[in-house]
Amino acid sequence: MGLPEHGTAVSAPGKVMLAGGYLVLDRAYTGLVFGLSARINVIAQEIHTSPGVHLTEIVVESPQFLDAQWRYGYHLAEADGGIKVTQLQIGSRLTANPFVETTLNFALTYIARTSKHRPHHAVKSARLTILADNDYYSQPHSTTTTTSPNSASPPSNSSSTTPPASTLNALTTSRFARFPVPLSGAHKTGLGSSAALVTALTASLLTHYLPPTLFDIASPAGKTALHNLAQAAHCAAQGKVGSGFDVAAAVYGSSLYRRFSPSVLSALPEAGAPGFAPALESVVRDEDGTIWDTEIRKDAVSLPAGMAVRMCDVDCGSQTVGMVKSVLAWRAREKASAGELWDELQRRNEGLAEVLRGGRTEEVRGAVKGVRELVRKMGVESGVPIEPESQTELLDALEGVEGVYGGVVPGAGGYDALALLVKDDRETEERLEEFLERWSKEKGSRVSLLAVKGEMEGVRTEELKLYEGWIR
Ligand SMILES: Nc1ncnc2c1ncn2[C@@H]1O[C@H](COP(=O)(O)OP(=O)(O)O)[C@@H](O)[C@H]1O
Ligand SMILES: C[C@@](O)(CCOP(=O)(O)OP(=O)(O)O)CC(=O)O
Questions:
Q1: Residue limits of the GHMP kinase C-terminal domain (predicted)?
Q2: If residue 375 lies in a helix (H) or strand (E), which one and from where to where?
Q3: Residue among 323, 179, 187, 320 nearest 246 (CA)
Q4: How many beta carbons lie within 10 A of that of residue 184, not counting itself?
Q5: In degrees to the nearest 10, what's the CA dihedral of 56, 58, 64, 66?
Q6: φ/ψ of residue 264, rounded to 5
Q7: Which among 44, 167, 381, 438 is least surrounded, fewest beta carbons within 10 Å?
């Protein structure tokens, strides 16, 4: 299998919110968000059907997982409902992927409105291949590895995109691991796979179907359209409106984030419903800039030279939804005291951002301590284990490792991977790995350093050759 000549590739980063979890749900507060070096990559290619065959099909696949192919036909929904896809059955199985399906409905509808052609002509058959960097999922026991991105591709085989099982060991030393399970069986590490996926898939579809004059991923206007469209699709697929910081990180990378008003998306009809297409187009275009009130301050976020954001996987994610409900219920109940706590926590979160931006390395430890103190207080008062005791114990112990400036339970907290601010050198990494190995043995748990690092850049185009062996 050689390298396909045609196609486009894009990638979008995962996220970690170092400070501002819960607060960021309210526009009065902000979140300190980092993009991550772990990316979701999507490659788009035309499918050439045999002469005389008119079937139009969109095939989406995730060749790292078992049974991860989703095929769709589509039609133009009546009464301006836009393009609506219908999943096609392969054999006896039909596994839905709501994030993929919703993204197709939203992106194809927008593309059909934007391109000058008639909708059916604009959208030809295509194959979209999704490749997720290894750190999105906890690696199977025996194959754990911390490889740097861009290392060797998997060995190619003759016709299938799924390399044979006999090469499994070789594969895990490559950039994209092959998992011996379906997607539903993978253990997420909490880096925001669905937001990065929706963003990368949307960007890939826009790049593939629209000429550069109508969509350019590198331009500010292109990023704005992508952000608006991906936020709308992600919210619809999730069935709730979160703060959207994860989609913002996937598009823009690291930033100080203020959310959009939830009302921005509340009037949008369901995909396929009457009036969906024009409503989506106007919300995405936001021509006079009055609809979206998101604030993305990229200049407000940076790290002191020689410092990195690293993540420590504890291999047991948490249920964010239940935690959010309980924290918000506490805030509504205890208006005055919760309000005071949030205002002070916001000041400390901004303080941490300032210390990092100003390169004041020696103040990082104190700033992180101050934030954690109030996060724990919020947990105790709301009765939600935001920084559970086992995580407190681990974070405190990690502070004793030379080269570690501090760490937090990011985002909603709980048992998702911890975020650490560390000295960015091999010695610190080795000390951390040794420490975590010892800790795992002593506590009978499985904590490990992920290869991923904080990164400033958001969505971008990639070279096809990075995916050699995975695409046909
Ligand atoms: N590699 C992938 N290929 C295809 N779909 C994916 C992939 N990774 C994630 N998804 C989609 O995202 C969903 C996971 O979303 P969610 O549970 O919100 O996790 P997260 O917290 O990582 O965003 C999956 O069920 C699937 O629909
Ligand atoms: C509570 C929050 O403010 C932050 C949640 O951050 P996480 O990083 O924990 O998110 P998930 O990946 O969705 O679990 C909710 C929000 O901002 O939407």
A1: 366-438
A2: helix 364-382
A3: 320
A4: 11
A5: -70
A6: -55, -40
A7: 438
If phi over 0 gives left and psi between -120 and 50 gives alpha, with beta otherwise, what is residue 91? left
Whole-angstrom distance, CA of residue 269 vs CA of residue 273: 6
111: CB partners within 8 A, 6+ apart: 83, 122, 123, 205, 206, 209, 210
What is the distance in A from the centroid of ligand 2 to the CA of 91? Answer: 37
pLDDT digits (tens, 9 = 90+) for 379-424: 999 999 999 999 999 999 999 999 999 999 999 999 889 999 999 9
The preferred substitution site among 194, 316, 416, 467 for testing ligand 1, maximizing ligand atoms within 8 Å of CB, is 194
**Counting atoms of ligand 1 from 1, which one is nearest the CA of 317?**
21
> Which atom of ligand 2 is the closest one to the Cα of 324?
1
The domain 304-455 is placed in CATH, from the list 3.30.70.890, 3.90.550.10, 3.60.15.10, 3.30.365.10, at: 3.30.70.890
Where in 135-287 does DSSP place strands (E)? 255-258
In contact, 415 and 391? CB cutoff 8 Å: yes
Residues with Cβ within 8 Å of residue 367, at least 6 apart in sequence: 348, 351, 352, 355, 406
Determine the distance from the C-alpha atom of residue 101 to the mean position of all C-alpha atoms in its chain, rounded to a whole number.
17
Give the ligand at the shortest distance from the Cα of 320: 2
- For residue 411 and ligand 2, the question of a CB distance below 6 A is answered with yes
Closest residue (by CA) to atom 24 of ligand 1? 194
Of 320, 325, 384, 386, the one to substitute when testing ligand 2's pocket (max ligand atoms within 8 A of C-beta) is 320
Is 8-298+462-467 assigned to CATH 3.30.230.10?
yes
User: 11, 40, 42, 99: which to mutate for ligand 1, most atoms within 8 A of CB?
Assistant: 99
Q: How confident is the prediction for the chain on average, in pLDDT? A: 90
| pLDDT < 50 positions in the chain | 1-2, 142-172
- Our CA angle for 263, 35, 42, nearest 5°, is 85
How do the domains of the chain map onto residue ranges?
8-298+462-467, 304-455
Name the token pair of 123.
């959208």
Closest-CA residue, ligand 1 atom 3, reads 62
